[in-house]
Amino acid sequence: MSQSSTPAVTDAIYDASSLGRPRMFVLGLQHMFAMFGATVLVPVLTGLSVSATLLFAGIGTLLFHFLSRGKVPAFLGSSFAFIAGYAAIAPNGEAELLPYACLGVACAGLLYPVLAALFRAFGAKRVMRFFPPVVTGPIVISIGLILASSAIANCQTNWLVAVIAVAVIVICNIWGRGMVKIVPILLGVVVSYAVAAVLGEVDFSGVAAAPWVGLPIVWDNTVFALFGPQFDSGLATTAIITIMPLAFATMIEHIGDISAIGSTCERNYIADPGLHRTLLGDGLATILASLFGAPANTTYGENTGVLALTRVFDPRVIRIAACCAIVLSFCPKFAAAKFFHVCGIPLIPWDETRREVRPNEMEIPNRGAASGPAGSERGPAGCPFARAGRARCADRPDRNRFQAGTGADVLINGRNSPNDAIS
Question: Is the torsion defined by CA of 344, 337, 334, 40 positive or negative?
Fold first, then answer.
């Protein structure tokens, strides 16, 4: 840590209270804006309620943090993986058909507790053998590549504004000082939105027409409104059969996201609090959101990108963002602002430190938190490799790691190593 009032962001910050409450609040706002574009885009594409989406993104995130013991700095936003399911049941966003799609998503969410129970019963090490990096990696990559077209489509509305947003984030992150370096995403959103407003690219008519306060939940849009004389059991069955299998992709995505968050934060969240807790939180959040007419929830890579940029890993900052989303869901004017139409934020890459968890990698106890460049042949103290079954760095035993049962050489990578062990 530096001696200034704002700790150096090159050092990981696990206790954001050292920054002060005002700065914690600003960091929370940054996380909210980071997820806002993608989270709101899902209801725009499907016809669901934007306000309900914000409400249950916040509630789902708080529920996730409660079940994961408040240890994982993850935000739960709208899942794009279920868009095909919504389109199959309500291709034009028909209001009378969307609750049936939500019913299918809620049933898909029931599969999360089943997988969570398997992790709890057999342990993460055994179950993760069925989810190696060759499985989780392509799933996460494919979802990201599918979303890339949405980012480009948003930027095509005005490339000048998109480039300005990217430039502001890059400049603030590289050359910024103090708080400016910690909130580059927020500054990118504010500056690009202001430029778009000056250029006349923002239509404020919807904002002017929207009321200041409104309830985010409409009863007719919920699953509960289906059960009456007009209930179509055939359509409900079709929705369930069509949408439930999509949960297998999102659960694999969840495992990859938790691995990425752990690698970014240099913590082993697969072991503590455990995948059974994170999966349960994600699944229950999805069920709750779907029942009330909001999209399915999923852990968000956008917020993992903010973690990597700011190096502030305190989960309380994410909970502040969740509370902000809940409050703003009662303000239809904010939902009508449509920040996602004018920003190039989705173009910012984030996962250069990402590393998949390998179930057969173990760590020698009493490991250190030393850091070393990924891909280098020697650790920071000149320690080269550790071969299975024997430590070769006698002078620094706390940095040794071996790969159990394979006899293969494993590169020492102190920065990511806390996330590599699965207990």
Answer: negative
